[in-house]
Structures are given as C-alpha cells and as structure tokens.
C-alpha cells in the first residue's frame, strides 16, 4: 500500500460501482453521511425539522428565512461556516435533552427513508463501520448506530453550557468536521490500521478518503434505489408505517408555523419555497 502522504495527493477516485467486495476482504470502512449513505446531499431539511422539534415553530421559521443566506455562504464562501450558521440558529439556547429526544424519536425514521442501496451494501459488508460527518454527533448518533449499525460517529461536537444544560449554539474544537478535520479524526480513530474503504460524495471528503486503502466516490443520483426498512438494523423506529411515504418527499415533512395564525392547535404548513431553494442548490453543486 502506498503511504498516506502519497495517497493524500490523489484527488480523483473511482465511482462506488467499481468497488468489488468479492475480490478483497474489506474489514473496515469510513463513510460520509449526507449524499453518501443518504440520497439527499443537503442537510438543510433535517436541521429545519430539528429546529422545530427540539426548539419551536418560530425557530424553524427563522431558520427558513436564513436559508438563502446560508446557501450563498455554503456555495461561495465556506462549507464550514455555513455549518456553523445552521447549528447556531437551530440549537442556540435549546436544552440538550430536547435535542437528544428529537434525534431519537423523529430523525431516524426520516433518515432511514433516504438510505441509498448501493452505498449501504458496501457499508454493511464491512466489519468495522464508522461514520464521518459534518453533522452534530448528537443529531445523527442514534440513527447511524441503531439503524445503520455503525460502531462510531466522528462528527461535530456541540458546546453545552454545563450550568443550564443548553446548547450555546457554538461548536467545540476543532469546529465543524469538514475537509482536513475529517482526515485527522479518521487518523486519530483508526491509528495505524487505516480504513480499508473510504466513501464520500464531494471534494471536502477527499481528505479522509485519501488516507484509506481504497477510496470511492458516490455519484449524485436523485433516482438512486433505496434500502427497505426490513434491510436495516432495527425496526423499533418504524412501527407506524412512516416509511411507506416516498423519501423524495422528505421536505414535505418539514412544516412551518404559519397555520397557527388560523388554527388554535399546533400544525405545520408545507412551504414549497424550501424545496425550490434546495433544488436550486442541487443544480449549482
């Protein structure tokens, strides 16, 4: 195997379809989440849902209003800074316990409806499975461990005020896990026995993929086949038939707080603007 330094200079990777699991024994894998194991490339809808479920309808609305600005920052300035903006607006001042509850009770069902069949097949074939993501660990840990069967999540740590047990809105060092920080996290976790396979879907994944023994890119495919709930590791999240709804309508589950102006009870209004913004971003990526 070539040294990690030599591999790091390699900036092109074959598509995931060229990964022959029958040819070599692959014991370990490091995989990105959004756009890699999940068909959806962007995490905006999940943050909006978390902002509403863990915070309030008003917080969700504020995040939606900031989406155009966050999108511009993501595309033209910095993926890391855009991630910090998402985290601050979504979680600042929210009780960490509420974030944990929402992450376990709501997100796994929605995430599970969007798992790609091709990348999950490669991921599930390995013995040691680690997720490397820019998302907050507290937000995705329940899903990736209990539904995908991952051993560990390497992700962004949210700062929590020890006195109030509320998220400060900021992230702990080294910050949002993108680019070189993903690489360093993988090196720290695996030590000298680096992953046999690394899979990702964007340039910011190249850093950690380059130190894996083999690296594969997961191509964007909005019509990619999805994994059925029966093929996942647990059924405990899926007892209400939730996954019967096509995952391409995941944005339809993100309701916004306009309806309370007309009805006295809590409700969510589907805002097509969100889907339009996300489709526009997909075309620019």
From TrEMBL:
Organism: Deinandra increscens subsp. villosa
Domain Glycerol-3-phosphate acyltransferase RAM2/GPAT1-8 HAD-like: 29-218
A Gene Ontology cellular-component term: membrane
Location relative to the cell: Membrane
Protein name as annotated: Glycerol-3-phosphate acyltransferase RAM2/GPAT1-8 HAD-like domain-containing protein
Origin organism lineage: Eukaryota, Viridiplantae, Streptophyta, Embryophyta, Tracheophyta
Domain of life: Eukaryota
Matching InterPro entries: HAD_RAM2/GPAT1-8 (IPR056462), HAD_sf (IPR023214)
Transmembrane feature ranges: 57-77
């Amino acid at each position: 195997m070539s040294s990690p330094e030599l591999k790091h200079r390699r900036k092109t990777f074959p598509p995931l379809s060229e990964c022959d699991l029958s040819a070599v024994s692959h014991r370990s894998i490091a995989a990105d989440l959004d756009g890699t194991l999940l068909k959806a490339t962007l995490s905006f809808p999940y943050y909006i849902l978390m902002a509403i479920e863990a915070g309030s309808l008003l917080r969700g609305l504020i995040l939606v209003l900031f989406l155009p600005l966050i999108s511009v920052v993501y595309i033209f300035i910095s993926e890391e800074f855009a991630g910090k903006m998402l985290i601050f607006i979504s979680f600042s001042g929210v009780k960490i316990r509420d974030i944990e509850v929402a992450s376990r009770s709501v997100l796994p069902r929605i995430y599970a409806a969007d798992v790609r069949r091709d990348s999950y097949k490669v991921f599930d074939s390995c013995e040691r499975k680690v997720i490397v993501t820019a998302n907050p660990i507290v937000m995705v840990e329940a899903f990736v461990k209990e539904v995908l069967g991952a051993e560990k999540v390497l992700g962004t740590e949210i700062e929590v005020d020890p006195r109030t047990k509320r998220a400060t809105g900021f992230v702990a060092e080294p910050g949002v896990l993108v680019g070189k920080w993903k690489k360093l996290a993988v090196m720290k976790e695996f030590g000298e026995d680096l992953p046999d396979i690394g899979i990702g879907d964007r340039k910011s994944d190249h850093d950690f993929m380059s130190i894996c023994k083999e690296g594969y890119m997961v191509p964007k495919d909005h019509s990619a086949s999805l994994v059925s709930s029966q093929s996942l590791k647990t059924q405990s999240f899926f007892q209400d038939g939730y996954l019967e709804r096509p995952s391409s309508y995941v944005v339809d589950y993100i309701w916004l707080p306009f309806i309370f102006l007309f009805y006295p009870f809590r409700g969510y209004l589907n805002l097509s603007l969100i889907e339009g913004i996300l489709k526009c971003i997909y075309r620019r990526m």
